[in-house]
Specification:
The protein is an alpha/beta fold and 341 residues long. 45% of the residues lie in helices and 19% in strands. Strands 2-1-3-4-5-11 form a 6-stranded parallel sheet, with helices on both faces. A 6-stranded mixed sheet has the order 7-6-8-9-10-12, sandwiched between helices. The termini are far apart.
Length: 341
């Protein structure tokens, strides 16, 4: 009996070693063929915002994992599906569809490209009617970071006196932009219930027409706004330019930290698209990416947040904003996703 037990133990040990060898071989094979690509939304990877952050994530993956990567830039609606098909045919094993308006193209192409894993930035898995088994969604709590910049703007404008008016300029009313602006409205009114919040949309499908966003911002300046939150990618740079030229209007950036644009900038509502791209790429590289679900980036996991703050802002206002952000992260303050001014 003792010899038989020993034999069973040896057999189990051999089986375990064999399994580990097979697992290691599979991992090595997967890593050797891993290639990552991003397909941008319409606009430029120099938009200092959404697309640029996605591309920064791609470059970080390329540097950290030492794997081939590529960006497919989308400049028109007609390029969405061809770009995704090109990424698939080129053998990329992790493909990011960047931007809500890419959801139809991803829904069409991902099921036809089963050897690749897909992730849609701002594309909830629930949007994909084909329910591809190789796809995950990446969503952000933009309303939470919008709340923080609105709250800070409300504190600053209230302390300055004069017209209690702030505003936001969106490119289009897509879900992510609506969430940003909804949070902004709630934050500003939390700081000052009497605050008036103006909201305008440039209706710019290119996300890059600065003249359109500037025109909306100029209209808000005529109405007395004291701070303009741009939520429009490259188009939004036009809104910030209007704030700069006004001389007495704060600018608030989006997605990336845009304080560097000048002394007229108050802060930015951060949306760490680059972090999400790196995180999911590493999961896919290790064979641990979960599909048919969403990955949520919020204040709680530092996926969104408050950017650098202008040094002219009193420290107590920054501290109050950080403190209220902790309440949001803990769930003690619930920020709604769709609020109209």
């Amino acid at each position: 009996m003792k010899g038989r037990t020993a034999g069973v133990g040896v057999a189990l040990a051999v089986a375990l070693v064999t399994a580990l060898i097979v697992s290691a071989a599979g991992s090595a094979s997967r890593n050797a063929t891993f290639k990552m690509a991003i397909v941008t939304d319409i606009g430029s990877i120099q938009d200092r915002s959404f697309n640029q952050l996605a591309n920064q994530g791609r470059l970080a993956v390329q540097g950290e994992l030492k794997v081939p990567t590529r960006v497919y830039q989308t400049t028109s609606e007609a390029q969405r599906i061809p770009n995704m098909l090109a990424a698939c045919r080129a053998g990329y094993t992790m493909i990011f569809a960047v931007g809500f308006l890419n959801y139809n193209a991803e829904n069409a192409v991902a099921p036809k490209c089963p050897k690749a894993q897909w992730a849609g930035v701002d594309i909830s898995y629930s949007l994909l009617k084909a329910k591809p088994k190789n796809t995950a969604g990446i969503v952000f709590a933009e309303h939470e970071s919008g709340f923080l910049v609105g709250y800070l703007a409300g504190l600053v404008v209230k302390s300055q006196g004069g017209p209690q008016i702030v505003s936001a300029v969106g490119a289009n009313p897509v879900p992510a932009i609506v969430r940003f602006i909804s949070g902004y409205i709630q934050g500003a009114k939390r700081a000052n219930p009497k605050m008036k919040v103006l909201v305008g949309y440039a209706n710019d499908l290119t996300f890059n027409d600065q003249a359109k966003c500037k025109e909306v911002a100029l209209g808000q300046i005529q109405q007395g706004t004291r701070a303009i939150f741009q939520v429009a990618g490259g188009c939004g740079l036009g809104a910030l330019q209007a704030a700069k030229e006004a001389g007495n209007v704060w600018g608030i950036g989006v997605d990336a930290d845009q304080l560097y644009l000048g002394p007229f900038m108050l802060t930015s509502a951060l949306k760490r698209v680059n972090v999400a791209v790196v995180d999911l790429s590493k999961l896919a590289y290790a064979g641990n990416l979960s599909v048919q679900r969403d990955y949520l980036y919020s204040l709680k996991n530092n996926g969104v947040g408050l950017g650098s703050v202008n040094k002219k802002v009193p420290k107590k206002f920054v501290e109050r904003t950080v403190a209220i952000g902790k309440l949001v992260a803990s769930g003690r303050i619930v920020v709604k996703t769709n609020v109209k001014s």
